[in-house]
Write a structure and sequence with these properties.
- There is one protein chain.
- The protein contains 10 helices and 11 strands.
- The radius of gyration is 18 Å and the shape is globular.
- Strands 3-4-5-6-7-8-9-10 form an 8-stranded parallel β-barrel, surrounded by 7 helices. A two-stranded antiparallel ribbon has the order 1-2.
- The protein has helices at 5-10, 55-68, 92-105, 119-125, 139-147, 162-173, 202-209, 218-222, 228-237, 264-280; strands at residues 31-33, 36-38, 42-48, 72-74, 109-112, 128-131, 152-155, 180-184, 214-216, 242-246, 284-285.
- It has a single domain, classed as TIM Barrel.
- The protein is α/β, with parallel strands linked by helices.
- The protein binds phosphoenolpyruvate and manganese (II) ion.
- Manganese (II) ion (MN) binds at residues 50, 220, 246, 256-257.
Length: 293
């Protein structure tokens, strides 16, 4: 019989099956964010700015990504910035703007929570909460996220192994919340030409080891706008259930991650290319008819 060392290790090397493991639950888990289902046949695209910067920036970007076929809107209100002197996000004001544009567009919203003290507030606005790469092993936060009963987008730690990643997800499931989406967003390697090294091999590996849906973030994965379309297409081809991408109505004016944000035109073009790849691998993607774009 084939043996997989990683599977044993993800199960703690013990006979006790882990909740994230496909051995425990062979069928794919579908994560529902309002009326959007991740993990089924449709490839779900989450798009929006890195950070909510202003009403104008968020509303313009949101309307245009919706027209391009995005099914969920992203936007950070609490930003984990490397420098304390950089824009830290609008905080609750950003959450309020996200809730307002959800009313208008109908797009569910996903936004990051960085601290257990913010979780109640963020969960009261968001349709899905995001735990970022830097907090993947923040165990109190993972436990609180498990208890808050909202779907959770858990990004891979930039230095986390697959085993560590799945064990982090296990903390959330262990609280009775199986609505968890995994997201490969690049890992730190010796290679400096890209912001991170996007580990697309993580997609088939995670899907083999776990029943949870897996999406890919080619924006943080590369840090380079021009490279995002190539890796977004590759992600769909290797079996990702969705993508999360940064899009800005004026990338050159972005307060955060503009160099890796697509313009809305680039996003619309990419969506139509992704549609072709999705069909080739037996999936579908929601792309509006040309007349509505
Ligand atoms: C983000 O998606 O806004 C983000 C900060 O990503 P990551 O946690 O992957 O760096
Ligand atoms: Mn960003």
């Amino acid at each position: 019989m084939e043996t997989n060392p990683y599977n044993n290790r993800v199960n703690g090397g013990s006979a006790i099956p882990s909740r994230v493991s496909r051995k425990t639950k062979p069928d794919n888990t579908i994560v529902s964010i309002n009326d959007v289902q991740v993990g089924g046949s449709e490839i779900i695209v989450i798009a929006g700015p890195c950070a909510v910067e202003s009403r104008l920036q968020l509303f313009e970007t949101a309307r245009l990504v919706k027209a391009g076929g995005a099914r969920i809107l992203r936007g950070g209100a609490f930003k984990p910035r490397s420098s304390p002197y950089n824009f830290q996000g609008l905080g609750e004001e950003g959450l309020k703007l996200l809730a307002m544009i959800r009313e208008e567009t109908g797009l569910p919203i996903v936004t990051e929570v960085m601290d257990t003290r913010q979780i109640e507030l963020v969960a009261s606005y968001a349709d899905m909460i995001q735990i970022g790469s830097r907090n993947m092993q923040n165990y109190p936060l993972l436990k609180e996220a498990g208890m808050c009963r909202k779907p959770v987008l858990l990004k891979r730690g930039m230095m986390a192994t697959i085993e560590e990643y799945l064990l982090a997800a296990e903390y959330i499931l262990n609280q009775g919340n199986d609505q968890v989406i995994l997201c490969e967003r690049g890992i730190r390697t010796f290679e400096p030409s890209t912001r991170n090294t996007l580990d697309l091999s993580a997609v088939p590996m995670l899907k083999r080891l776990s029943h949870l849906p897996v999406i890919v973030d080619p924006s943080h994965g590369t840090g380079l706008r021009w490279m995002v379309p190539a890796l977004a297409k590759a992600a769909v081809a290797v079996g990702a259930d969705g993508l999360i991408m940064e899009v800005h109505y004026k990338p050159e004016e972005a307060l955060c991650d503009g160099y890796q944000s697509l313009s809305v035109d680039e996003f619309a073009r990419l969506m139509s290319d992704l549609n072709k790849i999705a069909r080739a691998v037996g999936r579908e993607i929601s792309v509006p008819k040309p007349s509505t774009v």
